[in-house]
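Case study 2.
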Amino acid sequence: MIRRLVFALPELSLNLMFASVNTWFLYYLVSVLHMSPVLAGAAFLIGRFLDAGLDFPAGRLSDRQARSGGRVRLIGLALPLAAASLVLMWLLPALSGGPGATIGVFLAATTGFALFSLFYTLAAVPRLAMLPGYARSRDARIRQVAMDMVLAWLAVALASSAFPLIVEQAAVFAPAPFAWSLAAAFLALPVLLFYLPFLLLVEDQPLRSDAGSGPGSLRQGLALLRAVGLARPLAQFLALVLVPFLLQSILPFYLEMHVGLPADRQFPVLGSVFAAALLTFPVWSLLARRWPARAQPLAALSATSAGALAMPFLPAGPSPALFAMAAICGIGLSGLALAAWALVPQAVERAQMADSPPGEGLTTAAFTFLNQAAAGVAAMINGITLSLFRPDSAREAGSAIGSAAVMIGWAAALPALGCCLVAGLLLRRRIRAKPAPVA
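Prediction:
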């Protein structure tokens, strides 16, 4: 238990950063700096694809460091820079001219995102690449991923639900929009602290003893990666992670426009999503170890679809139905997170069993690349959605009434429902990893 906790603690750090950006940066650009939703979505998309493009070089660097047991050192160097760049990505747009300076805000947001992406990736990819060597059996990996996901979603809950409250307190000391960068600085402190046990106690253990005989260049590594046949696990992973991203970045707007809750009153609802997710991770972990490999993600897709389908029909204002929808979505999303990330160490191990393995870091980077791309695509889809269904009259009134409220409800639900359908179709064919008996 303690061993799993030490390895999982970085998920608190990584997801405090990742979720605060993924949930609130689009909102910050649109609602605080008044950028066009489409342009804000484009800035987010460019940032995410820059982030994704760094994954493969970071994976290659991770594999080179694995030869000397140096992946932990690489993480230790990148982490403080990631925390500093988290503050800069909120500060630079505020310094670029404030509300109305659209092009300046766009360029500043994209630049800040690029810096954050570089150092975040150098801290995240090597750590994830270490998981297959740290937990050697499927059962141990599911348990480790479950622990990772509990802490990850705890961080997501704090970043998504409490971040606007931190901004509200920061506004006492700094005017908007600078209160948002001050809140990010406050968030950067636990980011550094939660990583310390990992940096001090975890040893670098490559999956193969001959890790030093990896591909000689990034191009050779990518060629080997294509040759090991990971197309189906990668497609399944992409569909499974896209659903949470779609819902996560649209929820603040949905609650503001459909339900009529401004950002500083959304904490109870968003907290319900994450409380349900945290409470059900142990259940999903048990089911993943007992059920056939595809049964657990299909059950999670069904729960998520049920929650999303209810979104257009909820009344304005807080209601029991709203909190029930939030809990159902949380239950489904926790199952999707576990199913998606449990695919990664199994696929990494299978790739390393090839005669010419592409490397643990490079194989892991294929999945983190898709994760980053999914975040960018989700933000762009939601940016287009907001540009179509966010009328000025509803925004100025601070509520969403009538047909506009119904439309934003469907616009929030349909992309996630479509993605759930695609994921279900991909899972119809059996995932190759076989379930292990419960210890």
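The two ends are 14 Å apart (CA to CA).
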